[in-house]
Amino acid sequence: MIRSELIQTLARDNPELRPEEVEAVVTTFFDAIADRLADGGRVELRGFGAFSTRERSARAGRNPRTGETVEVPGKRVPYFKAGKEMRERLND
Q1: Which phi and psi (to 5°) does residue 43 adopt?
Q2: Would you call 58 helix, strand, or coil by DSSP?
Q3: Within this chain, do residues 68 and 25 fall inside the same structural domain, yes or no?
């Protein structure tokens, strides 16, 4: 499912809301998660899972075109861990 399909599904299930309102809610939801992760926080949605970040250390990489070794800096990357209810639902 992509973002537009999510918006369409939510709009169909909530006919009292205009599609623009549904899109605003989805945008606000995703922005709140991204902002929290950017601040180094964690977002937990009970029954669904938890979003957090993980540190990746600097490493030596390789340019695939030239084979030259390049230094890849350390960075934070998003991480998702599925909740217990989600894992159970997927493995029924």
Answers
A1: -125, 120
A2: coil
A3: no
Average pLDDT over residues 39-61: 96
**CA 67: distance to chain centroid?**
32
Whether residues 53 and 88 share a domain: the answer is: yes
Crossing angle between the packed helical segments 19-38 and 3-13, to the nearest 10 degrees: 130
Count, residues in the chain? 92
Beta strands in the chain (DSSP E): 43-45, 49-56, 59-62, 69-72, 75-82
Helix (H, G, I), strand (E, B) or coil at 11: helix
What single-letter amino acid sits at 44?
E
How many domains does the structure of the chain reveal? 2
Domain that holds residue 12: 1-39
Q: Are 61 and 72 in contact (CB under 8 A)?
A: yes
pTM score above 0.70 = yes
What integer pLDDT is reported at residue 92 of this predicted model?
87
